[in-house]
């Protein structure tokens, strides 16, 4: 049985995080080469299992996508930016 840093079993399809960088991904393969075991993630990189942590996969909320004009309008309405004609040119 292949285990993560906390002793949890790592299997193909597990959602894991590399503890050194925070990289997350799904396990697509497990390779055993002599005495070495490697876990291959969906980013095509191989990691030692003792440096991975099995995570509970959470569905990420779909972020609202706005075009530039919609974003500016939303920020003005929320009071996060102000629009003024009373400005001076820089450097004059």
- Total strands: 5
For the largest beta-sheet, the strand count, sense and barrel status come to: 5 strands, antiparallel
Subunit arrangement of the protein: single chain
C-alpha termini separation: 71 Å
- Based on helices, strands and strand pairing, what is the structural class? alpha+beta
What is the CATH topology assignment of one domain? SH3 type barrels
Indicate the mean pLDDT.
Answer: 88
Order of helices and strands: EEEEEH
* Share in helix: 10-25%
CATH architecture term of one domain: Roll
Globally, the shape reads elongated
Report the top-level CATH class of one domain.
Mainly Beta
Low-pLDDT sequence parts: none
What is the CA-atom radius of gyration, in angstroms?
23 Å
Q: What spatial order of strands do you see in the largest sheet?
A: 4-3-2-1-5
| Percent of residues in β-strands | 25-35%
Describe the 3D structure.
With 92 residues, this protein is α+β, with helices and mostly antiparallel strands. It has a domain at 1-56: Roll (SH3 type barrels), CATH 2.30.30.1060. It is 11% helix and 27% strand. The chain has one helix and five strands. A five-stranded antiparallel β-sheet has the order 4-3-2-1-5, with no helix packed on it. Strand 3 (36-41) and strand 4 (46-47) form a beta hairpin. The longest helix is centred in the C-terminal third of the chain and has 10 residues, at 68-77. The chain starts with 14 loop residues before the first strand and ends in a 15-residue tail after the last helix. Pfam families: DUF2098. It comes from Methanotorris igneus (strain DSM 5666 / JCM 11834 / Kol 5). This is DUF2098 domain-containing protein.
């Amino acid at each position: 049985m292949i285990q993560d840093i906390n002793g949890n079993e790592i299997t193909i399809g597990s959602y894991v995080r590399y503890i050194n960088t925070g990289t997350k991904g799904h396990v697509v393969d497990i390779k055993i080469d002599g005495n070495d075991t490697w876990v291959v993630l969906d980013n095509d990189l191989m990691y030692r299992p003792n440096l991975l942590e099995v995570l509970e996969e959470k569905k990420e909320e779909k972020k609202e996508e706005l075009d530039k004009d919609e974003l500016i309008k939303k920020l003005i309405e929320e009071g996060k930016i102000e629009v003024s004609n009373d400005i001076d040119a820089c450097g004059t």
